Amino acid sequence: MRIKESQIKEVNTQHLLAHENRLNALGAVLSKQGKDVNAIVQKLEDFQVAVPSWALGAGGTRFGRFGFKGEPSRLEEKIDDVGLLHKLTQTAGAISLHIPWDVPEDYVAIKELASSHNILFDAVNSNTFQDQKVAKESYKFGSLSNTSSVVRDQAIAHNIEVMEIGNKLGSKSLTVWLADGSNFPGQSNFQTVLQHTEDSLKEIYKELPNDWKLFIEYKPYEPNFYSTVIQDWGTSFMLANACGDKAYSLVDLGHHLPNTNIEQIVSTLMMKGKLGGFHFNDSKYGDDDLTVGSVKPYALFLIFNALVYGMENNPQNPYPAWMIDASHNIKDPLEDLIQSLEAIQEAYAKALLVDQKQLLEAQQQHDVVKCQEILQDAYRTDVRPLLEKARINRGGALRPIEAYRSLAVRHQLIQERGEDSVASGL
Ligand SMILES: [Mn+2]
């Protein structure tokens, strides 16, 4: 199904007056503070987040999976789903594919379909965390880090193939996340597996097209529970430096131990020009893959504050690639993603309200109370009218969740795809 612009306009009409009143009230307050409201709205309009193909169906846990009706079972349907999200939110202008789950059969048709939805192809993701039926070698004891060169070569060749597929679609980056590690002390030699990983990544890097970036993701545990080869940002940073200028670290919010100061990691990486990509989600305990902003919205704001500072002050760091990396167990995946996109935009808008000049002055005067007041003043501002304005300007829905429900999108998807369709790859 496709949502027509006229349908969005129609559902927007009933809320338009209330929106304008709220926007005018907020605009007056912000203008008095010397803020350029139009410039903030423009930044929100420009901020686009990629949706990964694997977030469009029910993810499940190791205990079970409760499917969601009308899931996209083919790549074309996944692109259609991101198209629906983008139409409503005007924030999801890219899709991130996972190989081998999303190998296109007809590249021309797939590219045409994506462009008909105004969607770009973001980073492509390789998969060496599970064995494919056709694979000769097993990744049970590691892929790029494996003690066997035959296994490592297979994993390197897979990553090169993923880049070739991405290149045909117009992607400009490869994300490598390794499940490699060990479950028990003594199982592997830390130095050997790290050296193998570095050597393997360098082999992949050699084949990276000139205008591409390599993103190296890190994670402290899971699926291995004693050690992971790329456990933290420091290891990722070290490996990126070993590869070269086009290799970067990728921060996934869920890939940290509880209470890690992620905003500080973001600041350090951007200062060194090495923050390449960012994966949004939220968590209470570990890599819980929950809706962005649902558990720790203030932490998300503080991270965005560091990101905004970095984007404004660190020309040595490229503009980061943004992606949602989440899984949906009980919510409609599309509704969950709409909520995540809203939370991302909200945190970004609040961070844009932070008066960096005042904050710097307060820091220099060691006025700790003032520093906190500046941050929390921005955080406590209800910025939703700015988000609404940005969406309306681009032809999106004033209230995306409400529009999604009133247009009965899921109902129509079930009609088209059936009740038992299952998202491929999950
Ligand atoms: Mn991730």
Structure description:
- The protein is an alpha/beta fold and about 425 residues long.
- The protein has 15 helices and eleven strands.
- The chain has helices at about 5-30, 35-45, 75-90, 105-115, 150-170, 190-205, 235-245, 260-270, 295-315, 335-355, 355-365, 370-380, 385-395, 400-405, 410-415, and strands spanning about 50, 95, 120, 125, 175, 180, 215, 225-230, 245-250, 275-280, 320-325.
- The strands form three sheets. Strands 4-5-7-9-10-11 form a six-stranded parallel β-sheet.
- Strand 4 (about 125), helix 5 and strand 5 (about 175) form a beta-alpha-beta unit.
- Helix 8 (about 260-270) runs parallel beside helix 9 (about 295-315).
- Bound molecules: manganese (II) ion (MN).
- The site of manganese (II) ion has 5 residues, from loops.
